[in-house]
């Protein structure tokens, strides 16, 4: 087990290093000068030069790469060009929106998707099965920004149950949850559809397994056999998907964040790219990559929790 | 009155008739052997009794268990009976257990479902039952997971689950086919003991006549969903009445007629072959444990000689076969074929393969389902490089080879799924023959076949060796088969060759403990 | 009655310091609310006294003496003195200054404090525009102690003080109870940043926002106006929207080609199609609401036939040009319409949508473009035509001569006449195609009053805003 | 669920037919802007009305289908062209360092937030159909590489591979002759599904202004531009959205249907 963790840690470090190189140098070739962006149309050449020096943009590339890397290792991602505050603080503030949103959406997706999948699997080939699977197909096919817009039109503009967007902060947790509800629904719908489909097909596979028949031969009822034997085995592929979904929800919410003008990580990245605030872009992408790798790792651990074959040395 | 009585049982699945007029009975403390070739309906008979049939199934007739009619019983009633009054052991020990649950809990579950016992009480009973099937908690803890057990041990867990509540009826569906002979013997002993001690009725399903003849009081022969013959075991084996049973018994004891050809110079020489597998298992990746599958194996095969290789599962037979063909690297030792060292890749490898071919165990799996038979059979011609015949010449060659194994030439245009198991294995032999090799390695080439088909294939092999001077390396775990087709036999255990000699001599008068054990474990018809 | 307001803005300010970044979004939050200069823009563009209650100009026009208002203190409690003014102006014009509008201070020779409340600024040449220059957001007065931290923790002299910035979401200001002048009527103001036009519309409809001074979805204005809850206020801005042409590049260096392009454009169709009717056609680079404006639209009236003829005259055919379009809707939508109109006269364009950063670097910085649609929102900026190295590259000697004369002229009549000549010069030379003056189309809650109608500078002055109900 | 397959096939056929038709004929020229006729409701002149520039919606949708298909097709093609060979090679050398590097590389690409990278790519090279293709294509590479490797490794376990090796065939030949044909069905199924995802992705990119550029119509951009007009002229906001929904739905149903059809385990029971 220790060996495994060590190996994973090394491969994690290598992955992060490669990612950092890719991120840094892709951003190097990005056209557009942050200094010019900040000073606008009438900026004088001296002012531009002065600002570039101030931002440390005139140092050689490798020096800047190295100092970025060294800074990150000590938790210092640099000072945002545009906001003039440490990038890490900007990101931390956004994470307080993005992570709860992603978790909220994932919980919703799970609460909707898993029961639907189980229902469809147990009623295989019935109209209920066909109906739920048809619904999930539509859930996947709806462009989520469009769905989000329709949600706003219905629940904010017409019914006025929720505000149309924005985020009031966590001082009032109730208001914060309200503000995240519509975005979470918009994000969760397609994910719930995917989960339902995976859950269904995975459960159908395990229901066909011999050990489910064995369980019934012991005298378990169909539903006992399903919940005690098939379900847990079926969760394994579902976990993989959920791991992928979490990272997607963390970063992929940009469009939803735009529609609901939420101060999330995705929108920060988007704004930073537009403003050529390379420090922030780099840090956000790096942190997201890191998050994905960590989540993948967590999913591996979760596997081990579910599956004893992975817990001890043998397979 | 018998414990279990089937009366004119009929079964259709989605309108297809599977069972018809099946009538059987078993008394308490008796063993009924249900035999028949693959697909004859043995498993579905068992599942009908348990009422665990697939969707679309329609059952008619009567199943009497202790006076109750199971055909008419509701699902709730059945749930009460399953596990309590009747238990079942399934064919595949590898997949019949839930991989995420400890074996103790799986056995305890039977108890908890029916007796409503608390967790610890149920566990106690489970531990007891496990002990009864030869898995004492001191050696095999009930908190182990299925993957931590061997196949035989898993099968015992399956048995423990079935007998935990001492049911009156136990149905065992091919409980030993997935196990090697020695393990098979242990399991059969265990079942026989239970019947004796507990007065349980046992329905033993198998395709192996030798196994039932050892175990059963009465035997029923199933053919295409009908019982063609039933009666006391002895009588049925010794004097079968129906032609089908007669054919079945004949095939089981069939020995191909073959004349020992002259053995020429040494064709294959293996010296000190050693193979270590690096174990990269699950989470403990990186640790450098190795497993020695071959441990200094040396052997020779002469031109025209037929050599058998026996040994229980995992003893390294397949590894050796692959190493001989140059498909597996060796960590030490060497393989020489016709005076040339066998290489693993490149032109040199092709040169030796040119004269060595192989026939595999799975008659279906060893063919790419997407290619036509003509192409499949011609594939080894690749070894001839530019000298390979092309176009019409190639087609003619394929046709000739197919005919030589008794398959019509027109088969070349069809896909492999259009053939029966026996035909497929003959096509596999044709494929091996197409480049006229000097040695054919057959790795469990007949294990997957029904007895009657197996007899045909063995005849074919014998006939070929009569026609051309060809050497066989015949790998099997079935001593019966080895006896029938080989001149000399090698016995493998744990990666070593422990005994070697003329087939008759070794099997009649084994010198080594291990060989003796093997010979003793092998079920014999009428034994 | 409410005492707070939620203002919707499209762009979030990068930070809060107006003296070191060109972003209009900064001024939209802080101008007149947090920071003040010596002078300030009034709602209609007049130059009004602010921190300087009055100023004198010396006879030769070279020295401005500013008399500071008494009793002004910064939000941190320190008093405003002449030294702060000297510091602010010297900082802005210094060698290593990162002020985005350094030209505002270019003429300053020296700044001196005569006493605590008097500052004398000496110019190197007379400049009638100097009080106007001092009204810009880039010329606000800051204190030396807080100058470096204004970006994140702004300390000004205005009627509101900074309270909180929820980055990516909103900025909150609260009333400055110690304000030197008339105190603000509202207690609290929140600026919400909503860039998506659809979201802006939804926020307005859901009444999550009380006003959008510059509403990003002009197509919905009619609908909002019809709603009794809202009022649509259309005013003027300083934004001349033009199709800029690269005068340095073949074949746009040929005035006939430029004239052909100018005649190919149907201004009204662009205004209708892109801005849903909000905007005033212009024929030169000058704001129509300015007294010196002259209507020159006829010079380049929509006339596709004439356009085709001019192209033949110029000897060009099969013309293919690239058209760079920055993000705002006037450019993206307007550009698409202009491209279609140019195609009608046989000029093919390849639309290249660019982000601001790219536009600034490629088009504006390197002059690497053929055509681009852009709104020049700085007030009174016809001067850019005198710079030969400006991105569209005009700088004709006649124009420069006229401009020089203007800077020397103080008398209003003569100034207006000269401004007319300047307008005519660029219009007759078809330097760019002049399309329309951007309208300031804002939406507000019907119960609000005191918001600016026009936008002489980009600001959301909240000093006079109040709820009527 | 043969119904699903049928519906999917029909919807996909309609999508393809629309794109093909638009190559030869559209009711109106989509580059023609007539501001005076903007936002007309559906009627005999314009069956689906006109958009905010007075362009005919039917024509826009037809040409938009062409854009969507072209972008999605090339992007998925790119993903397959690179991903499948990588996956085959990794499967052929499963367990080696080579395999490890390919798979870690895959994980790394997966770890990057797709939309942000797409935005970066378009920020570097400028927005446009080609760059949308590259952005979508890159993220299809690991999908196909992983799938091919997984399925390929399954095929490599089969006994007929051993038979091919006995016939003297090397890794490359075996990969091409045996592995690839045996995973072909699965690749087709996945391609169908990736195709539908690519259509959604293109719409998403277009929504943030990074997809195909004007004057080329794109469903995503039409939808984005029309959002604010939903209460003004509902048809301009609904039509492109429905076009996307039906295309994606069709392709997904087709993919699922094909999977069921190809999967031998399912037999008559269906799933
Ligand atoms: N779920 C099912 N649906 C339809 N037909 C089935 C099903 N299961 C089995 N059959 C068919 O029923 C017949 C009997 O099958 P069964 O499994 O009982 O054979 P068997 O005698 O146990 O064979 P084997 O020795 O191979 O296990 C076969 O022809 C088989 O194809
Ligand atoms: N790739 C491998 N990695 C690690 N161990 C292996 C590998 N292949 C085989 N082994 C082990 O080597 C031993 C010999 O395997 P081999 O397949 O040669 O046995 P066998 O005698 O053919 O058995 P069977 O009768 O079951 O086919 C077994 O214990 C097996 O678990
Ligand atoms: Mg069976
Ligand atoms: Mg073997």
Automatic annotation (TrEMBL), chain A:
InterPro entries: BPD_transp_1_N, MetI-like, MetI-like_sf. It is found in: Cell membrane. It is a multi-pass membrane protein. Keywords: Cell membrane, Membrane, Transmembrane, Transmembrane helix, Transport. Gene3D superfamilies: MetI-like. The keyword Membrane applies. The chain crosses the membrane at residues 12-30, 101-121, 142-162, 174-196, 234-256, 284-306. The keyword Ion transport does not apply. It comes from the Bacteria. Residues 95-299 form the ABC transmembrane type-1 domain. Pfam families: BPD_transp_1, BPD_transp_1_N. SUPFAM superfamilies: MetI-like. Its main location: membrane. Belongs to the binding-protein-dependent transport system permease family. PANTHER family: DIPEPTIDE TRANSPORT SYSTEM PERMEASE PROTEIN DPPB-RELATED. This is ABC transporter permease.
Automatic annotation (TrEMBL), chain B:
Belongs to the ABC transporter superfamily. Signal peptide: none annotated. This is Dipeptide ABC transporter ATP-binding protein. InterPro entries: AAA+_ATPase, ABC_transp_ATP-bind, ABC_transporter-like_ATP-bd, ABC_transporter-like_CS, Oligopep_ABC_C, P-loop_NTPase. SMART domains: AAA (SM00382). GO terms for molecular function: ATP binding. It is found in: Cell inner membrane. Residues 4-249, 268-519 form the ABC transporter domain. Its main location: membrane. SUPFAM superfamilies: P-loop containing nucleoside triphosphate hydrolases. Keywords: ATP-binding, Nucleotide-binding, Transport. It comes from the Bacteria. It is a peripheral membrane protein. It holds the Pfam family ABC_tran. The keyword Aminoacyl-tRNA synthetase does not apply.
Automatic annotation (TrEMBL), chain D:
Pfam families: BPD_transp_1 (PF00528). SUPFAM superfamilies: MetI-like. The chain crosses the membrane at residues 7-25, 57-88, 108-126, 132-148, 187-212, 232-255. Keywords: Cell membrane, Membrane, Transmembrane, Transmembrane helix, Transport. Belongs to the binding-protein-dependent transport system permease family. This is ABC transporter permease. It comes from the Bacteria. Residues 65-255 form the ABC transmembrane type-1 domain.
